[in-house]
Amino acid sequence: MDDRLVQASGADSREDGARTDAALYSLACRGDEEAVETLLIRYLRPLTDFIRALLRDPRDVEEVALDAFAALVASRGRFAGKSSLKTYLFAIARHLAFKRLGRRAELPVEQEVLASLLSGAPDAQADPDPEELREALQRLPLSYRQALSLVYLQGMSYKEAGEVMGKNLDQVTHLVRSGKHALKKLLEMG
């Protein structure tokens, strides 16, 4: 993988100068390599961060990320603009990761997710042990981990997370709230 792409900020910018995601997607579907590279720079890092929350093997993470971009470009116009391109891309990656997982429920946990989950919570443990957090989050149901990763690590809105997960807003709200509650209970139990 090109080091420039891995080091890219991955900021969720919808504009690159005058180039919106929709314009870049259109160009990419017509074979414009510069448009593909711009989309890679824009979304590869946040996409691999999300996939890393689903898959353990770094090679699988990289393959699924690149496969998701390839599927995005190969879909040639199937993206209808009903959601953001980022949401559409993440949904593709989720599908490919689950296919790779074979629906196994064991997921790795990123430290950034752990820190952001409990930060700002009024009754959050002062400085929870990272390993305890990691173990507690691993014991959560897959749907809780996925919702928490999309919202807290990827910074997606509940609506966007729902589009990626195939859930409505109420369901995502419930998953995030229940996931945080269950995580807190697991930490209290030790």
Describe this structure in words.
There is one protein chain. With 190 residues, this protein is mainly alpha-helical. It has helices spanning 3-7, 21-29, 33-52, 58-74, 85-101, 111-118, 130-138, 142-153, 158-165, 169-189; strands spanning 15-16, 19-20. The chain has a two-stranded antiparallel sheet. Strand 1 (15-16) and strand 2 form a beta hairpin. The longest helix is centred in the last third of the chain and has 21 residues, at 169-189. The termini are far apart. The model is unreliable at 1-16, 103-109 and 120-126 (pLDDT under 50).
The helix/strand order is HEEHHHHHHHHH
**Shape, per Cα inertia axes:** elongated
Residue fraction in strands:
under 5%
Task: Count up the helices.
Answer: 10
- The strands making up the biggest β-sheet line up spatially as 1-2
Largest sheet: 2 strands, antiparallel
**CATH architecture verdict of the largest domain:** Orthogonal Bundle
Query: Mind telling me the CATH superfamily name of the largest domain?
Result: RNA polymerase sigma factor, region 2, helix turn helix motif
Pick out its properties.
mainly alpha, 190 residues, 66% helix, elongated, 10 helices, single chain, two-stranded antiparallel sheet, Rna Polymerase Sigma Factor, Chain: A, Arc Repressor Mutant, subunit A
